[in-house]
Amino acid sequence: VLDAGGYSAVKGQYQCIEVTSKMLPGSTYGVVRLVRWAVDHKLYAMKSVDKWALIERRNTGDQRVVQRLADERDFYAFASHDCPFLVQFVGSFQSSKRFYFVLEFCSGGELLDRVRHCGGKLPLEAFKVYIAELCIAIDFIHTPPLMLSSVIGYVVNFRDIKLENVLIGSDGHVRLTDFGCCKPNLNRFGGGTNSVIGFSIDIMPPEFFTGSGYGYPLDWFQLGILGFEILNGSHPFGSFSADPDDEQKWYPPKYNGDVPLEYQELVNGLLHPDPAERWSTLDRVKESALFEGFDWRAAARKELEVPWLPPKVDESPKEEPGGPDDTTL
């Protein structure tokens, strides 16, 4: 179904420690497990994809399901090592039944869990650091050229930026993960595809509903939704969508009284209904009042003080029985 693509840099035996998530969002064939590699005894996250599930999806009309998986693998391989705020790719391999991605284990879990732990919203300084790091990640994936197996992806949209797809690494810095919805070669500022395979309609921008297509501004719009959620503890649309017919009902969104104006300005800029007016570049975000005097170079080097450092995980091997979940090359 899918060859190793030259990325079979991982060899040895992986022992499953626990299943870290059920079926991935937007997927019916991917499962992520926490594993230990017998070679270095360190912990990794391993995504396994059932080959027969891929074939069934292809046979029922999803003709690009295999190519999307190949693009996801290529994006991990080519992009992750050049940006510290993307989850790091270790390697890939396959067995007779499954295809595997081995990824960095982020011990801090999902940003969604952190928000819930903090009572539904994050402190202002945490918002500032996390949003800055995500802006750097988005700017990176929008910067050409990114080489994918199917095309030269001079423009890549992530298309699924949400709290569940942001992890916190053991160093306390964020990692954008789950590249299964990334789409190469979209028009930079609009007019691209309106395909919705794999991601949530409630994070789609107004231009999606008009049928005019989307480009870079889509990812920044989704970052605006994420920013509003961690500032305000709720979705900016409430019971509405971003359909232009509902625009007066949700834009500008309504904030709690304790959200400072400079934070509101940033999120409102990211959520602007018109993609031509939306804050859709890192340079535009840098011009905001919130980031006046902010040290972006330090942020890019992960030199900022992190809002929260996850407890240290003991990675030393323990006497754990093997079993049917073990994967051996």
UniProtKB/TrEMBL annotation:
<keyword id="KW-0547">Nucleotide-binding</keyword>
<keyword id="KW-0808">Transferase</keyword>
<feature type="compositionally biased region" description="Basic and acidic residues">
    <location>
        <begin position="312"/>
        <end position="321"/>
    </location>
</feature>
<protein>
    <recommendedName>
        <fullName>Protein kinase domain-containing protein</fullName>
    </recommendedName>
</protein>
<dbReference type="GO" id="GO:0005524">
    <property type="term" value="F:ATP binding"/>
</dbReference>
<keyword id="KW-0723">Serine/threonine-protein kinase</keyword>
<keyword id="KW-0418">Kinase</keyword>
<dbReference type="InterPro" id="IPR000719">
    <property type="entry name" value="Prot_kinase_dom"/>
</dbReference>
<feature type="region of interest" description="Disordered">
    <location>
        <begin position="307"/>
        <end position="329"/>
    </location>
</feature>
<dbReference type="Pfam" id="PF00069">
    <property type="entry name" value="Pkinase"/>
</dbReference>
<dbReference type="InterPro" id="IPR011009">
    <property type="entry name" value="Kinase-like_dom_sf"/>
</dbReference>
<dbReference type="GO" id="GO:0004674">
    <property type="term" value="F:protein serine/threonine kinase activity"/>
</dbReference>
<feature type="domain" description="Protein kinase">
    <location>
        <begin position="1"/>
        <end position="291"/>
    </location>
</feature>
<keyword id="KW-0067">ATP-binding</keyword>
